[in-house]
Phenylacetate--CoA ligase family protein
Amino acid sequence: MGAQMENWHFPARYDQSYLPDPDSPYWFPHRETMDPQERDAAVLVRLREVMEYAYSTSTFYRTKWDAAGVKPADITSFEAFEQVPVVTKAEMRESQANHPPFGDYLCCDSSEIHHIHGTSGTTGAPTAFAIGRRDWEVIADNHARILWGMGVRPGDTVFVAALFSLYLGSWGALAGAERLHCRVLPFGAGAQGMTARAVTWLARTKPKAFYATPSYALRLAEVAESEGIDPREFGLQVMFFSGEPGASVPAVRKAIEDAFGATVIDCGTMAEMTPFMSASATAGTPDGMLLWQDIVWHEVCDPDSFRTVPYGSEGTPVYTHLERTSQPMIRLASNDLTRWVLEDNPCGRTYPKLPDGVYGRIDDMIHIRGENVYPTEVDNYLRGVSGYGGEHQIVVRRTGSMDEMIVRAETTHPAGQRDAFERDTGSGLQSLLGVRVTFESVDANTLERAEHKSRRVVDEREHTKR
Ligand code: 8LE
């Protein structure tokens, strides 16, 4: 079974010169279209191998699993695997504080480290990611394979418009596109005036593919339009996104498609999980995200028990590396929210799918007066309202003993002619969300645009608690 799966080894080994038949929609036809039960059986054997590797090379996993009474050799069923305790971000931070800089879950020799990346550290101590040289090659191969699935081909120009720094998103996209023998334009993002220059370079180089965060693509479209350039003139065909919800939020997706005239592809798990593109749509199945289960094992779990929920249900993704030898993550809890299904995919791949993408983080969900509000619902709603100016903010505050939610949205309606917009949008939001909303409008282009990931929620209740 495993033997038929193309290049199925641990540690992973890929022929760096391999490219599929140009007419094949698949990079590895067998792995991608095989009976999912057979694939899962091969993955189960692999999970044991990865766990044995991690147990023998890291104090972190040995201590954690010994305490939980888990032995790699006992993982002979998925039920057993679901008993393996999840890894949390807090544990990783603690491990790195006690064993700087990479923590005691670094499983390879430090001489093998090829790249160091990390979290931005805006919400706490930064975490460092150490990626081995061989792992980097394997990541590039995996991402090339997924890009092939999106319809990107050797010789295509790929424009990467995300931060080239600690952020792994841009580097992962770059590595994959290079391995795919594309022409890569590692443009970056975030410097002063860079978006206007991106417009010039896109118009000049006419790339086929483009990578960024979804909010940045919308920002770019606004800047192009303000310079009198229709973003459709860039001729982009495939735009792939990670980093935040957006590409699977219907109105955001439509806004990007309408602005650029390209196919929008959603992808991305977490930086720790690089190859993070293991959840990704394809050219033939462009909506939602497929879970490329032979690259990373994706489970959608109950957020309390961390047992998988049945297909069709909502839960939180838990991820396990199948090929990483440096800092392998084994049951990493994401704290995100999604729903998964297993059905026939038009592209022929037999992977499960997240039909609505990853629609929010458990900790970003706003709990207000007994209701749960997803910020993406507000975004989706506002983008469908005529006269919406393109950006908004959600402020939650406590007035007396009551929580109050204020949505402040930009509008293109001139001052003095906003009454109907304010009344209708405010009441529309209120009935959608089921909570009282104070709605305010402000002039277009006055709220801050994200150069990276958007931060639209200001929860002032947390400040008052401190
Ligand atoms: C909905 C995956 C990557 C490298 O682009 C990234 O942003 O990794 P990072 O910085 O570790 O952030 C991971 C978090 O971003 C996830 O837990 C999730 O909350 C969010 N995220 C990333 N990609 C998506 C996403 N949320 N859809 C996505 N496609």
